[in-house]
Amino acid sequence: MYYVYLIISKNKKRTISYVGYTNNLKRRIKLHNEAKGAKFTRGRKWSLLYSKKYANKNIAMSEEYKLKKNYKLREKIKNRGKN
Fold first, then answer.
1. 69 burial class (0-12, 13-18, 19+ CB within 10 angstroms)?
2. What span, in angstroms and rounded, lies between the C-alpha atoms of 54 and 32?
3. What SS3 class is residue 17?
4. What is the pTM (predicted TM-score) of this model?
Protein backbone atom coordinates (compact mmCIF):
# COMPACT_ATOMS: atom_id res chain seq x y z
CA MET A 1 0.00 0.00 0.00
CA TYR A 2 1.09 3.55 -0.78
CA TYR A 3 -0.24 6.81 0.61
CA VAL A 4 -0.52 10.28 -0.83
CA TYR A 5 -0.46 12.83 1.97
CA LEU A 6 -0.71 16.54 2.63
CA ILE A 7 1.01 17.98 5.68
CA ILE A 8 0.84 21.54 6.97
CA SER A 9 3.02 23.80 9.05
CA LYS A 10 1.70 27.01 10.56
CA ASN A 11 3.68 30.11 11.38
CA LYS A 12 2.59 33.62 12.38
CA LYS A 13 1.84 34.80 8.84
CA ARG A 14 0.59 31.77 6.89
CA THR A 15 0.04 28.05 6.58
CA ILE A 16 2.49 26.13 4.39
CA SER A 17 1.58 22.79 2.83
CA TYR A 18 3.61 19.93 1.40
CA VAL A 19 2.40 16.96 -0.66
CA GLY A 20 4.20 13.63 -0.92
CA TYR A 21 3.77 9.89 -1.21
CA THR A 22 5.11 7.00 0.86
CA ASN A 23 4.55 3.38 1.78
CA ASN A 24 4.95 4.07 5.54
CA LEU A 25 3.00 7.16 6.54
CA LYS A 26 3.89 7.31 10.26
CA ARG A 27 7.61 6.94 9.56
CA ARG A 28 7.51 9.58 6.82
CA ILE A 29 5.79 12.19 9.00
CA LYS A 30 8.30 11.45 11.75
CA LEU A 31 11.18 12.00 9.31
CA HIS A 32 9.73 15.34 8.19
CA ASN A 33 9.51 16.48 11.81
CA GLU A 34 13.06 15.32 12.56
CA ALA A 35 14.40 17.41 9.63
CA LYS A 36 15.30 14.24 7.72
CA GLY A 37 12.53 14.45 5.14
CA ALA A 38 12.47 16.54 2.00
CA LYS A 39 14.69 19.61 2.03
CA PHE A 40 11.65 21.91 1.81
CA THR A 41 10.20 20.51 5.04
CA ARG A 42 13.27 20.94 7.24
CA GLY A 43 13.09 23.23 10.25
CA ARG A 44 9.30 23.21 10.65
CA LYS A 45 6.78 21.31 12.75
CA TRP A 46 4.43 19.36 10.45
CA SER A 47 1.03 17.83 11.07
CA LEU A 48 -0.88 15.45 8.82
CA LEU A 49 -3.99 17.00 7.31
CA TYR A 50 -4.94 14.56 4.55
CA SER A 51 -3.98 11.09 3.36
CA LYS A 52 -5.37 8.60 0.87
CA LYS A 53 -4.38 4.96 0.33
CA TYR A 54 -3.55 3.49 -3.09
CA ALA A 55 -2.91 -0.08 -4.22
CA ASN A 56 0.37 0.51 -6.05
CA LYS A 57 3.22 2.98 -6.37
CA ASN A 58 2.44 4.16 -9.92
CA ILE A 59 -1.09 5.23 -9.03
CA ALA A 60 0.13 6.94 -5.86
CA MET A 61 2.82 8.86 -7.77
CA SER A 62 0.29 9.96 -10.37
CA GLU A 63 -2.17 11.16 -7.73
CA GLU A 64 0.59 12.93 -5.81
CA TYR A 65 1.53 14.84 -8.95
CA LYS A 66 -2.10 15.86 -9.53
CA LEU A 67 -2.51 17.09 -5.95
CA LYS A 68 0.80 18.99 -6.08
CA LYS A 69 -0.28 20.88 -9.19
CA ASN A 70 -3.91 21.49 -8.17
CA TYR A 71 -3.59 24.47 -5.81
CA LYS A 72 -7.35 24.97 -5.62
CA LEU A 73 -7.82 21.45 -4.25
CA ARG A 74 -4.94 21.94 -1.80
CA GLU A 75 -6.55 25.15 -0.52
CA LYS A 76 -9.91 23.37 -0.22
CA ILE A 77 -8.33 20.61 1.88
CA LYS A 78 -6.48 23.17 4.02
CA ASN A 79 -9.67 25.16 4.61
CA ARG A 80 -11.58 21.99 5.49
CA GLY A 81 -8.87 21.23 8.06
CA LYS A 82 -9.35 24.61 9.73
CA ASN A 83 -12.97 23.84 10.61
1. exposed
2. 21
3. strand
4. 0.89
| Alpha helices per DSSP H over the chain | 25-33, 57-69, 71-82
Contact between residue 77 and residue 18 where contact means Cβ atoms under 8 Å apart: no
CA dist 37 and 56 (Å) reads 22
- Report the alpha-carbon distance of residue 51 to residue 80 in Å, rounded: 13
- Domains of the chain and CATH, by start: 2-82 (3.40.1440)
Residue type, 28: R
State pLDDT tens for residues 18-37.
999 999 999 999 999 998 88
* Residue 48 φ/ψ, nearest 5 degrees: -75, 130
